[in-house]
Write a structure and sequence with these properties.
mainly alpha, 9 helices
Length: about 160
């Protein structure tokens, strides 16, 4: 493993399930990575990193928003906030109700809590606690299980008040 922290395939796979076209996304990542779907599943469930697959998928499909989101997630987890934030900002500023892509369908969650939470994490780690609190609260409004996000929002609010 390299010196930079890598997010495991298990975590990406768990959050990726909210995105539309998950089967297509995994298939494309497998093809891009030159491995079979079974091998991908084995890597993902064993916790092996999937950074290389994501990079290859993004190289082949640079406009695919779910791949961009996964790339931003990986960058945020590594602490590369300047790489992660532009994509996450773009996703959170997209109106999920009016967005239309003629080629792909995306789950509205991609533009809501799935992008807001990692962007909030970037801000929190940068010490921008008020921005983090706002984004954690925004994510909590649409997340299927908002309790943890509400707690993070409150923590960020308390840190901002210091």
């Amino acid at each position: 493993m390299s010196a930079t922290k890598q997010i495991s395939g298990r975590k990406i796979r768990a959050t990726f399930r909210y995105c539309a076209n998950i089967s297509l996304a995994i298939l494309i990542a497998c093809i891009a990575g030159g491995i079979s779907a079974n091998a991908f599943d084995s890597r993902a469930t064993s916790g092996e990193p999937i950074d290389d697959l994501t990079a290859r998928a993004l190289a082949l499909f640079p406009d695919h928003l779910a791949f961009q989101w996964v790339g931003a997630q990986l960058a945020a987890q590594r602490g590369a906030f300047d790489l992660a934030k532009p994509t996450l900002k773009k996703l959170t500023s997209t109106d999920a109700d009016s967005f239309f892509d003629p080629d792909l369908a995306y789950d509205k969650a991609l533009f809501r809590h799935l992008a807001a939470e990692p962007l909030a994490l970037c801000y929190f780690r940068e010490g921008r606690f008020a921005d983090a609190a706002r984004l954690y609260a925004q994510a909590a409004r649409t997340a299927p299980d908002p309790a943890a996000l509400e707690l993070k929002a409150r923590l960020a609010q308390l840190r901002a008040a210091r």
